[in-house]
Design a protein that fits this description.
With 331 residues, this protein is α/β, with parallel strands linked by helices. It contains eleven helices and 14 strands.
Amino acid sequence: MPRLSVRHETWPLGGSFTISRGTRTTAEVVVAEISVAEADGREVTGRGECVPYAHYGESLEGVIAAIEALGAPIADGLDRLGLQRVLPPGAARNALDCAFWDLEAKRAGCRVWDSIGLPPPAPVTTAYTLSMDAPEAMGRAAAEHAARPLLKLKLSGPDDLARVEAVRENAPGARLIVDANEGWSLDDFVELAPKLAVLGVDLIEQPLPAGKDAPLAGVRRPVPVCADESCHDTASLAGLSGRYDVVNIKLDKTGGLTEALKLKDAALAQGYQVMVGCMVATSLAMAPAILVAQGARFVDLDGPLLLARDRPEGLTYEGSLVQPPEPALWG
């Protein structure tokens, strides 16, 4: 009989992390575990990690309660596919969905990708995120990480052009993504986008607030624009036409790997490019996303690089190159 457990963990960051909505110094994650006693006496456990996000109406307490409420249904036979019907997309379903994937693979004695007929995942190159700060400070951070091939800049408004100019000056060889986290107006976008194109920016992520992004369909986009907060799951795609060129797939938005793989296929079929992103979390949260990141145009799975320490069995990062997970971590 499957047994569910859930816990909250706090992981200190290597410093403060600032976006347009605020600053944090820790990563607050929820870990779900589903354990089964096998006939030979072994106990097999599958794990999944999620990050509740207040901006989406989530809290640690609410996500933990939603997971705990499924203890009895899981013991009675609720499986990963049934989970998609009983929980909406979001952090709680993500932790459970990924725990089910991990459990299924361990019980079958194979890796997750083998179980669904995918080739073994290759290493991927991740962006490295520069926290929002004064232009001079972001320039110094860019110089420190200038050897990384892809930098992601958190922006917010008035000094954004100066921020990007400082980063470009100090990391002339890096590709750049800028992420406004819904912090711009349409006027900001119209003014900044052509200038960012001249600076060689590859992507602008979520410039306008979700739900107020329709004007993007009526303006020129000299830099490709990516939907993050505006794209949660496959159902979100219908509202993105003409506004965005790229969709950012995060497992905490899709509610796990199951829906993330569906969203990737649907987005590509509709002509979008794909970015695979993350919340600030440990390698346990990144590991399932490595599968989705295969062949993605942009990968942003740097959460563990922002922590003061990661899980002992965490992913291997060689600079910005991320190796696929070992079985001790996930899958």
